[in-house]
């Protein structure tokens, strides 16, 4: 609903004791777009499922209420949220976005959609396209509404209204027959890489007799305590560079030489040229891949705490990856997050751009003065997860903001990045302070990575980290151990998937058993 005429007192009565066959359906619409079709649809669904089980603002809800709480409080089982999308839906959304900036206008229809898409709402969302309306492109929507464009849509045509309503009713009947958990919880994606399966890990570095310890129970207890009780761990995700660097190296000549990503990218850039490098990167990084176990754990982290009855804790996650696997994991979990991306090209080159969960993107032009990130400026606790991509991102767009060829990836790029102005004039103060005052968990790095060396040099000016931190590597060597030690980072040998599995298991077993004050 979008406001307008004042509906009278709620006319529907509590449904009382419902059998498993009851089905609550909420109809969301914009009055300037699909008011007539909403009323017609309500009448048809009310005849089929009972008026007490179909909810439309002008029929049975008071204005300004939380529809989900209202429906649940009256004993109804609201299982389905229908969002009617007509020819003027997108224009109305944009108009109200602009109005909200100056007039504090509340877009009720948008708020209802966001509520339905929120993790834990237990509502199945069905977009219904009116006549020839198309599904809005995900990138054209605020991220808090993007899940709407990813749902399977139905169609409702004026010329085939009866036929289309019957098909929609069949869909609703299928939802009613499914168990609640099945209807609302998407299945976990299956791993697609052999490396996802836990495997034994080496305890000694290759080619030496130097012992690198595996993480023990004390380590997991320490990390979880800082993560869950204090919100003071920043996961720092290393690049998925192995396959990409190998592919880049093989573009021009077969080689057995192990090049890291920066070396391989520099080689292609110099010998073949910029177009070939960026075209190859785009092809490799846009290939559909399932989010890793690490990505899925980080995306589930807030929900796990909530399930255990623990205080909410959100994360600052720093990544040098260019792909969107981490963001996809959060989208799959319906877990809200903000995004901050470093721009190496375009009009905001040399700056971070903030992509809020519910607002339009904003370039951070004065890092010391910007306070719009979801980090409390006094306690530096996070109000929502913040993903920071410090070396750019694959070509994309969000909220009307577009970027392309946005990579810090070659050796020359890293040299320029390292020799640029002071980090305080580049990284927003909210991010920099939170990062420097937290315990870092480095995942997926080797000391050979340019991205790691640049990150440590830029953020900590080459000095040891102030707070105890940890690095997890699959097969570290003595040089890794000594280099991490100089930065006051404790190194452990473990495959990443096996490590994350044990970390999550420790969190569920120990925190679930004792809880937190």
Give the topology, please.
Layout (H helix, E strand, L loop, with lengths): L23 E5 L2 H19 L4 E2 L1 H4 L6 H7 L4 E8 L3 H15 L4 H10 L6 E7 L15 H4 L4 E3 L4 H17 L2 H5 L32 H14 L2 E5 L3 H9 L11 H11 L2 H12 L7 H15 L8 E4 L5 H8 L4 E7 L7 E5 L6 E3 L20 E5 L2 E2 L2 E3 L2 E3 L2 E2 L3 H8 L10 H8 L2 E5 L6 H11 L8 E5 L4 H9 L2 E5 L2 H19 L3
Parallel strand pairs: 1-2, 1-3, 3-4, 4-5, 6-7, 6-16, 7-11, 8-11, 16-17, 17-18
Antiparallel strand pairs: 8-9, 9-10, 12-15, 13-14
Helix pairs in contact: 9-19, 10-11, 11-12, 13-14, 13-19, 15-17
Helical content, roughly? 25-40%
Mean pLDDT: 81
* Beta-strand segment tally: 18
Helical run tally: 19
State the separation between the terminal residues, measured CA to CA: 41 Å
Report the structural category: alpha/beta
Tally of separate domains:
2
Q: Sheet bearing the most strands, described?
A: 9 strands, mixed
Residue share in β-strands? 15-25%
- Bulk shape: globular
Question: What is the gyration radius calculated from CA atoms?
Answer: 26 Å
Could you give the order of strands across the largest sheet? 10-9-8-11-7-6-16-17-18
**Uncertain regions spanning at least 5 consecutive residues:** 2-21, 183-209
Multimerization state: single chain
Key terms for this structure?
single chain; 517 residues; alpha/beta; Rossmann fold; 9-stranded mixed beta sheet; 5-stranded parallel beta sheet; 19 helices; 15% strand; globular; disordered N terminus
């Amino acid at each position: 609903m979008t406001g307008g005429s004042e509906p009278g007192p709620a006319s529907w009565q509590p449904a009382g004791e419902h059998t498993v066959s009851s089905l609550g359906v909420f109809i969301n619409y914009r009055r300037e777009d699909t008011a007539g079709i909403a009323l017609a649809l309500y009448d048809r669904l009310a005849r089929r499922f009972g008026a007490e089980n179909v909810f439309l603002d002008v029929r049975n809800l008071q204005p300004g209420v939380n529809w989900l709480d209202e429906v649940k409080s009256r004993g109804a089982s609201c299982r389905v949220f229908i969002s009617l999308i007509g020819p003027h839906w997108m224009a109305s959304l944009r108009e109200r976005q602009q109005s909200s900036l100056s007039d504090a206008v509340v877009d009720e229809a948008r708020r209802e959609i966001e509520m339905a898409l929120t993790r834990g709402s237990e509502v199945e969302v069905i977009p219904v396209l009116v006549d020839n309306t198309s599904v809005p492109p995900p990138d054209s929507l605020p991220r808090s509404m993007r899940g709407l464009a990813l749902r399977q849509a139905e169609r409702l045509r004026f010329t085939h209204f009866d036929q289309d309503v019957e098909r929609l009713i069949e869909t609703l009947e299928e939802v009613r027959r499914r168990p609640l958990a099945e209807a609302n919880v998407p299945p976990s994606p299956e791993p697609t890489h052999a490396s996802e399966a836990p495997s034994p890990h080496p305890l000694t570095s290759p080619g030496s007799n130097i012992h690198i310890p595996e993480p023990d129970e004390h380590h997991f207890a320490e990390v979880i305590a800082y993560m869950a009780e204090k919100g003071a761990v920043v996961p720092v995700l290393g690049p998925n560079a192995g396959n990409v660097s190998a592919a880049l190296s093989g573009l021009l000549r077969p080689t057995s030489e192990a090049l890291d990503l920066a070396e391989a990218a520099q080689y292609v850039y110099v010998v073949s040229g910029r177009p070939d490098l960026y075209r190859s990167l785009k092809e490799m990084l846009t290939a559909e891949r399932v989010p890793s176990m690490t990505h899925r754990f980080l995306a589930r982290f807030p929900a796990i705490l909530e399930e255990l009855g623990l205080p909410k804790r959100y994360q600052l996650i720093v990544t040098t990856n260019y792909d969107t696997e981490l963001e996809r994991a959060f989208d799959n979990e319906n877990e809200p997050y903000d995004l901050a991306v470093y721009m190496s090209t375009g009009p905001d080159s040399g700056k971070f751009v903030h992509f809020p969960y519910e607002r339009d993107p904003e370039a951070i032009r004065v890092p010391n003065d910007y306070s719009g990130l979801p980090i409390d400026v006094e306690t530096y606790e996070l109000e929502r997860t913040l993903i920071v991509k410090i070396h750019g991102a694959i070509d994309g767009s969000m909220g009307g903001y577009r970027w392309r060829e946005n990579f810090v990836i070659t050796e020359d790029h890293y040299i320029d990045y390292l020799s640029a102005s002071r980090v305080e004039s580049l990284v927003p103060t909210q991010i920099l302070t939170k990062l420097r005052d937290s315990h870092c968990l480095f995942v997926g790095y080797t000391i050979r990575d340019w991205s790691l060396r640049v990150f440590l040099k830029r953020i900590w000016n080459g000095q040891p980290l102030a707070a105890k931190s940890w690095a997890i590597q699959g097969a570290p060597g003595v040089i890794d151990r000594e280099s991490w030690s100089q930065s006051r980072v404790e190194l452990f040998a473990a495959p990443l998937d096996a490590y994350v599995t044990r970390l999550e298991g420790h969190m569920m077993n120990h925190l679930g058993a004792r809880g937190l004050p």
